[in-house]
């Protein structure tokens, strides 16, 4: 499976074409719209989210609510485009309007893609960079992830994400007995955090940052349950599923690091404290006492839950000005801006779920794939049975 996305943040729409989705998968607009709405929520977002009401159009690959095996085309409109048609060059403009509408962005924001993107592509107007480097693109990544989640749910595999830290406030109580419980609790939290007490403090931290004209980042966690063992492979660097998930997480705008299970803490512990001891029972077959390695050994799933965390840096666009240089005049200036999110960690946790779901579904379809969801399901069941009896 693969997908590409196209579209600018303030252009008419975002598009994705997804190839390789097995035939016979039930898929409706609602399956995708639910995920799009989840991504739009979250404490700390700016005014843009009040303008957008993300809804998908399915323009290919699905008939009567089932995938055909052919490419799936998905489109999400930018409602904000209505305010930007002239600036985005979508319609001809008069000579008198030209100077105003073609007003260039020449003042790069530290931490965004503006300056480096402009140098790389030779753009003297950095709007040509920011339109595509914007995390608006994650809308259609979440749409593709919704399709991946649908594949996984048909195979009895569940994915859930949540926020564990914002602006230095760490969730302490992370108890849940099932992923369904985790999902329900975090869905009711404005910061998608299980620990209600920490959630209150996180919102306070967001308010304080906003008041100061600043921004904050945080840490999200994604869990995948129901995986068969042996997905991914140790035989080549580019077949390791944990490595693919790591790339997917760091590909999310503003994500700077990733860890599995104990993660960086493993580097401060003894081997005897880290490695997950192997047990066996008639009923379960092989299983582990702990899951410190977050569901991976040798780039392959162990059958234990995948537990992956990603760290998001603070949003680069700040109301509090930072030092930069105008690329036309070379004069120093202090950046000022129109609007921005002050914290997008809750929204990013939904994006993280989507990109992890995508990598896991892709690996499964590649490994067990026979172009049809029913045959993939049979293959997975066979693999799970084989592993139990091994
Ligand atoms: C959901 C989400 C919303 C974001 N919103 C903003 C924003 O409002 N303003 C901003 O400057 N950056 C925002 N970002 C981060 C930038 O898109 C990102 O920092 C930029 O593309 C540069 O890429 P890099 O940080 O990965 O190097 C957001 C990121 C995500 C995931
Ligand atoms: C539009 C979204 O996020 C945007 C991501 C973003 C950035 O620079 O990454 C900048 C902001 O856009 P604008 O400048 O239009 O307010 C965010 O709102 C979205 O998540 O759908």
UniProtKB/TrEMBL annotation:
Q: Which species is this UniProt entry from? A: Aeribacillus composti
Look up the domain of life of the source: Bacteria
According to the record's subunit comment, the protein's assembly and interactions are: Homotetramer.
Q: Which GO terms describe its molecular function?
A: chorismate synthase activity
Record's function text: This reaction introduces a second double bond into the aromatic ring system.
Q: Which PANTHER family did the record assign? A: CHORISMATE SYNTHASE (PTHR21085:SF0)
Q: Can you tell me which residues bind FMN?
A: 132-134, 253-254, 298, 313-317, 339
Cofactor(s) listed: FMNH2
**Catalytic activity field:** 5-O-(1-carboxyvinyl)-3-phosphoshikimate = chorismate + phosphate
Q: Where does NADP(+) bind?
A: 39, 45
Per the record, the similarity remark reads:
Belongs to the chorismate synthase family.
Keyword Flavoprotein part of the UniProt annotation: yes
The keyword Flavoprotein is annotated on this UniProt entry: yes
Which pathway does the UniProt entry assign to this protein?
Metabolic intermediate biosynthesis; chorismate biosynthesis; chorismate from D-erythrose 4-phosphate and phosphoenolpyruvate: step 7/7
Q: How is the cofactor bound?
A: Reduced FMN (FMNH(2)).
Instruction: Tell me the protein's name.
Output: Chorismate synthase
InterPro entries per record: Chorismate_synth (IPR000453), Chorismate_synth_AroC_sf (IPR035904), Chorismate_synthase_CS (IPR020541)
Fetch the Gene3D superfamilies from UniProt.
Answer: Chorismate synthase AroC (3.60.150.10)
